[in-house]
Amino acid sequence: MKKLDLKIVSAGFDPISKLSEIPNNPKKRYEVMTKDMPKGGSLSLDMMYRTSGTQLNLDYTSEKDFIKKI
Question: What distance in Å separates the CA atoms of residue 54 and residue 52, rounded to the nearest whole number?
Answer without folding.
Answer: 7
